[in-house]
Automatic annotation (TrEMBL):
This is Protocadherin-20. It is a single-pass type I membrane protein. GO terms for cellular component: plasma membrane. It comes from the Eukaryota. Residues 1-20 form the signal peptide. Keywords: Calcium, Cell adhesion, Cell membrane, Glycoprotein, Membrane, Repeat, Signal, Transmembrane, Transmembrane helix. Residues 18-116, 117-222, 239-352, 336-436, 437-538, 539-642, 646-763 form the Cadherin domain. InterPro entries: Cadherin-like_dom, Cadherin-like_sf, Cadherin_CS, Cadherin_N, Protocadherin/Cadherin-CA. SMART domains: CA (SM00112). Gene3D superfamilies: Cadherins (2.60.40.60). The keyword Membrane applies.
Length: 831
């Protein structure tokens, strides 16, 4: 294959068909095989071949280039992280075998997370380092990606506020934010997180273990249990231990070394008798000791450390003389005892503990007494012996163990023979109830909390010991709260809603382990803080109002209120407004009402459909909407308009042969009002000539009919003055119109040039409404009866009469058809 390719290259090179300028294509790493990255067809013609199909292949007919396998940029270009990663190939195109060099650029994706070389990074910082001191971190993470995908930023977790991270280019430093104290916390375990800059960031975490190194910032202190008194029996040799002193320095190593020394104020006798080891603090005899009388030496000892004032303690050493025979004490226990130790329960009244008998020799007489510090005990002579008693009830919580020192001295008290120590242990009883640190706790928590969230920790202590002092907690009215019976941690186990309950009063009981147990209590007041989680609410989702179209401006239409169950600003209705534009209504927020702000006209718009919104004052702002329908009630503010006839000068010719009962013409009027205000009636109030007008108008329909046969005196022009009136209350509105009728044999078009002079008198009231149903029924009965009579009596006469009048009837019908044809008037409003 390589030989074939070489032959191709040599052949094409010799032909001079190799192009010097390479084509560039881009492929994204880690894509599946078969992804198109470009095409050779845009520049060259088919066929197409590649000299080497590594990573890519070509469609020989279309020239499209596809990935042949997954390409890993980091594997392909491991040493070119900061520049383009490319590989080359060569295409042979067209029938002329042109050679086209190609460069394929592999684009990076964020497929590699940052990596720390070490999972744990140790760092040592002296405890006296000042705030703001920075410590370089050489253990930085590496990311194989490039560009933003390989750019790393760092942050700390669990630093406790002691440290922060400062990143300046490639330099990474740990900055001290708070003072360190090795004696308080020697190690700080931090988490150093490295995050790359990819669109979907990847991260890595390393443990940053900061060890605080010691400096000499603590001074020595004597231990609380160091001896304060010691007794040296008679006949002790040099080097005998007298007392072991203990002192500590919280520092480490050389900083914690302590040097012990005697004060210069001790007596010369004490300096000669005692030796102090400067390293161990052991006081021992410097010489062999044999004294004839008791001696007491007060030794002041210093614990020294560089740069510190010395710590001081005091040890009293009692030197006992050598005696041939000394008085001794025989103890007869009365109270309960164990291993020569008296055991007494606390709170017992003054009790006899033991009977002490002084065993004297003939040469040494003595008496018994208590040391001045042996309180609260008493020693009383009793028939040659002594009764050791308590002088008051003992309290375990004040002191659980007493050492009663009995002094044996001569009868005059001038010589001390010896001391006897009697131990008394006080047994605890459950006499203390648990006591809370505070009687009342108060805690605020926001509503809509997550279940299980920590609320607070209550703490109760019991002065008793062991099981008597072990406290367990419980809630008497927990509701949505729970308490850990061991730790006293109160948590919220449910989501709280302030609108249901604003304050919870909990009673916490602390019970000890005694039998019977004792309890203490505390009150926990939990205040639920409001969140703006309730939108405003209208009393109804749809308001309906009725308003007259004559309503004055700024008049109240109705009440529009909204409420919010939240509290404070969250529950304040900040605004209620109408969302519709250009409407003659507005919300009066102060009065909680809807008011008119402009004129309304039912004839233009008979209702308004509005959308009103209420907004609260919380953050975030919540709102609610409601619909509002306002119906405009009609007012009689429009006169009737006569559409037919179109003019007072209109004229209609009527044939004298018109039959009685025929409709001559019609008055047609409209009223833009509604209801009774648009109920129109018609009435003829005057006619010219005035005597016995043969015309009549139907009150509701406006139809003008001929009520009688026309006679000779009816020929000529008839002027009818008609009032058109609506049904408005209390005062109807009306208009008038002239109807001109010409009775004439010829049906030529008539003309009216002038109307008669007429001053209408006061118009009569509207005509009463007739029951048209009753009237039509009466006429029906009349005609039916008349027909029956004609049929039964005058059948023959009727036939003859019909025959005689046949021709005349035909002529009348023709005249009537002509009249009806000319009866249509133009429907136009009156001027």
């Amino acid at each position: 294959m390589n030989w074939t390719i070489l032959q191709w290259v040599l052949l094409l090179a010799s032909a001079g068909k190799i192009h010097s300028r390479a084509l560039r294509f881009t492929a994204v790493e880690e894509q599946e095989a078969g992804v198109k990255i470009g095409s050779l067809s845009t520049t060259y013609s088919a066929p197409y071949r590649l000299l080497e199909e590594t990573y890519i292949r070509v469609d020989e007919s279309t020239g499209d280039l596809f990935t042949k396998e997954r390409i890993d940029r980091e594997t392909l270009c491991p040493s070119h992280q900061d520049g383009d990663c490319t590989f080359s190939n060569t295409a042979v195109v067209s029938l002329n075998f042109e050679v086209v060099p190609m460069i394929i650029i592999v684009d990076d994706i964020n497929d590699n997370a940052p990596i720390f070389e070490r999972n744990e990074i140790p760092l040592h910082i002296p405890e006296d380092a000042s705030n703001g001191t920075s410590f370089p971190l050489d253990d930085q993470a590496q990311d194989k990606d490039t560009g933003d995908n390989g750019a790393i930023r760092y942050y700390l977790k669990d630093s406790g506020g002691f440290f922060s991270i400062r990143q300046d280019g490639r330099e990474l430093e740990l900055v001290l934010q708070r003072e360190l104290d090795r004696e308080t916390q020697e190690n700080h375990l931090l988490f150093l997180v490295a995050v790359d800059g990819g669109s979907v960031p990847r991260s890595a975490t390393a443990h940053l273990n900061v060890t605080v190194t010691d400096v000499d910032d603590n001074c020595p202190e004597f231990d609380a249990d160091s001896l304060t008194a010691a007794i040296v029996p008679a006949l002790r040799v040099k080097g005998t231990a007298v007392a072991q002193l203990k002192a500590t320095d919280k520092d480490l190593g050389q900083n914690a070394q302590i040097a012990f020394s005697f004060s210069r104020q001790i007596s010369d006798r004490a300096k000669a008798l005692f030796h102090l080891d400067g390293h161990t603090g052991l006081i021992s005899l410097a010489v062999d000791v044999q004294v004839d009388s008791p001696e007491e030496h007060v030794l002041k000892v210093f614990a020294n450390s560089p740069l510190c004032p010395p710590a001081q303690t005091q040890v009293t050493v009692y030197m006992q003389p050598v005696m041939s025979q000394e008085p001794s004490v025989k103890i007869k226990f009365v109270a309960e005892h164990k291993n020569q130790v008296i055991v007494l329960q606390e709170n017992e009244p003054p009790t006899v503990l033991a009977l002490l008998e002084l065993e004297d020799t003939s040469t040494a007489k003595g008496t018994l007494s208590l040391d001045k510090d042996s309180m609260p005990f008493s020693l009383k002579p009793q028939a040659g012996s002594y009764l050791l008693s308590t002088s008051k009830p003992l309290d375990f919580e004040m002191c659980g163990e007493y050492e009663v020192t009995v002094i044996i001295s001569d009868p005059h008290g001038t010589r001390l023979h010896r001391r006897e120590v009697i131990k008394v242990l006080v047994e605890d009883v459950n006499d203390n109830a648990p006591k809370f640190e505070q009687a009342r706790y108060e805690k605020d928590i926001r509503e809509n909390n997550e279940p299980g969230v920590f609320l607070l920790r209550v703490q109760a202590s019991d002065a008793d010991s062991q099981q008597f002092g072990k406290v367990r907690y419980r809630l008497t009215n927990g509701g949505p709260f729970r308490i850990d019976e061991e730790t006293g941690v109160i948590s919220v186990v449910e989501t709280l809603d302030r609108e249901q309950l604003e304050t919870y009063i909990l009673t916490v009981l602390a019970r000890d382990g005694g039998e019977p147990s004792l309890e203490g209590s505390a009150i926990v007041s939990v205040n639920i803080l409001d969140l703006n989680d309730n939108p405003p609410a209208f009393p109804t989702p749809h308001f309906y109002f009725f308003v007259s179209e004559s309503i004055p401006q700024l008049s109240q239409v109705g009440k529009v209120t909204a409420s919010d169950s939240d509290k404070g600003e969250n529950g304040r209705i900040a605004d209620v407004r109408i969302l519709n534009a250009d409407v003659p209504f507005a919300i009066d927020l102060a009065q909680g009402s809807l008011r008119s702000t402009g004129e309304v006209d039912r004839e233009k718009q008979d209702r308004y459909e509005l959308l009103v919104v209420a907004v609260d004052g919380g953050s975030p702002v919540l709102s609610a909407t409601a619909r509002m329908t306002i119906f405009i009630e009609d007012v009689n503010d429009n006169q009737p308009q006569v559409l037919l006839p179109s003019s007072n000068l209109s004229c209609l010719t009527i044939s004298p042969a018109t039959r009685a009962g025929s409709m001559i013409t019609k008055i047609y009027a409209i009223d833009e009002d509604s209801g009774m205000n648009s109920d129109i009636t018609y009435q003829i109030v005057a006619s010219k000539p005035a005597l016995h007008s043969p015309f009549q108008i139907e009150q509701h329909s406006g139809n003008i009919t001929l009520v009688q046969h026309l006679r000779g005196e009816d020929y000529g022009m008839h002027h009818l003055f008609i009032v058109v009136r609506d049904g408005g209350k209390p005062d109807p509105l009306q208009t008038t119109v002239w109807v001109n009728l010409l009775v004439n044999e010829t049906l030529e078009t008539c003309h009216v040039n002038a109307l008669p002079d007429y001053s209408p008198p006061r118009l009569p009231p509207p005509m009463p409404v007739k029951d048209s149903r009753c009237e039509s029924n009466a006429w029906l009965i009349f005609y039916c009866g008349l027909c029956l009579m004609v049929i039964s009596v005058c059948v023959l006469l009727a036939v003859v009469a019909v025959f005689i009048k046949h021709r005349k009837t035909k002529r009348k019908v023709e005249q009537k058809n002509v009249w009806e044809t000319g009866n249509l008037c133009e429907l136009k409003p009156l001027n």
